[in-house]
Amino acid sequence: MKTKIMNFGTLFPMVAAGMLIYAGTAYAQTEKRVIEAPKEAPIEISRATANSPAVNLKDVGNEVAPGVFVVDPSSTRGKRLVLPRGGAAARQVCHGKWTGSTKTCEGVFIEW
Q1: At 36, phi and psi to the nearest 5?
Q2: DSSP per residue over 40-109, as a string?
Q3: 108 CB contacts (<8 Å, ≥6 apart)?
Q4: Tens digits of residue pLDDT in 31-57
Q5: What's the rounded Cα separation, in Å, for the pair 109 and 69?
Q6: Whole-angstrom Cα distance, residue 90 to residue 82?
Q7: Measured between alpha carbons, how far is 102 from 61 in angstroms, rounded to an integer?
Q8: What confidence score (pLDDT) does residue 42 get?
Q9: Quick one: pLDDT at residue 74?
């Protein structure tokens, strides 16, 4: 039985061509994931200082449960949020979106 030995000079171009085809295919798949747009709009960052106008929690918040308020971030953009002191007022604030079915806050949850 005779065995044919392959020459390295003919094997190298075939391997190099295969690697180039694989690299081109993998890059196209990676690029596609990067180009896809996010499903939700990103949160816009705004700045507030000690001199910014103040907004009271009772004015902009909605009470979803006793002592639990939800505040829309767009209503406090560029403003200071003033939380009430003492008493049986709000003890929990969700600065974002409150999901009632699972009772979780999608945003910043403040408890004091």
Answers
A1: -60, 135
A2: SPPPPP----TTSPEEEHHHHEEEEETTEEEE-GGGSTTSEEEPPPSTTS--EEEEEEEETTTTEEEEEE
A3: 94, 95, 96
A4: 555 566 666 666 667 788 888 899 988
A5: 10
A6: 12
A7: 20
A8: 63
A9: 85
